[in-house]
């Protein structure tokens, strides 16, 4: 698996065995950051995106972390997570709210899984430049003033300029459409 092989050249049987052996050594639920962007770019992924609205209909957005190789430049996005082996979707969502992604500073009593959304790989409207996704969208409401120091609430029509394209034009519109169709749901 030397770095000199061409990207489109098929793997030999020995290289396939070597890949399989190396994959066995990676702990469950962890893909090293150096491998993750190359790995998920090869297969559709299934992130769980959490769209949080406040009482004024604004959307909670956070910046990507410093040094993010997948989306450089700290673009804004809605928080989310991925399901780890042995974890239910509900457990993954609870874990996300305990993490340092800004969700732990919100007053959200309940979230609802509203739909799945196809996000195609590409650079067009609503697409993800790094991979194809089948995103699971969850919606929740924050009550009271926002007192956190990471992220913030934005009018959906005036999101930060650097908002990830697939969040701006696919995920958030799905959540807004769901809310318009279910106006009496108390979250």
Kindly report how far apart the N and C termini lie: 51 Å
Largest sheet: 4 strands, mixed
Helix proportion range: 10-25%
Shape: globular
What's the architecture, going by CATH?
Alpha-Beta Complex
Total E-strand runs = 7
Main CATH class: Alpha Beta
Low-confidence stretches: none
Q: How would you classify the helix and strand content by structural class?
A: alpha+beta
In the CATH hierarchy, the third-tier topology is known as Nucleoside Triphosphate Pyrophosphohydrolase
* Helix and strand run: HHEEEEHEEEH
Number of helical segments?
4
Strand content: 15-25%
Please provide a written account of the structure.
The chain has 187 residues and is α+β, with helices and mostly antiparallel strands. The protein has a single domain (43-181), classed as Nucleoside Triphosphate Pyrophosphohydrolase (Alpha-Beta Complex). It has helices at 13-25, 36-40, 89-98, 165-181; strands at 48-53, 59-63, 76-77, 80-81, 108-119, 133-142, 152-154. The strands form 2 sheets. Strands 4-1-6-5 form a 4-stranded mixed sheet. Strands 3-2-7 form a 3-stranded antiparallel sheet, covered by helices on one side. The longest helix is centred in the last third of the chain and has 17 residues, at 165-181. It is globular and about 60 Å long.
Write the layout of secondary structure elements.
Blueprint: H1 13-25, H2 36-40, E1 48-53, E2 59-63, E3 76-77, E4 80-81, H3 89-98, E5 108-119, E6 133-142, E7 152-154, H4 165-181
Parallel strand pairs: 1-6
Antiparallel strand pairs: 1-4, 2-3, 2-7, 5-6
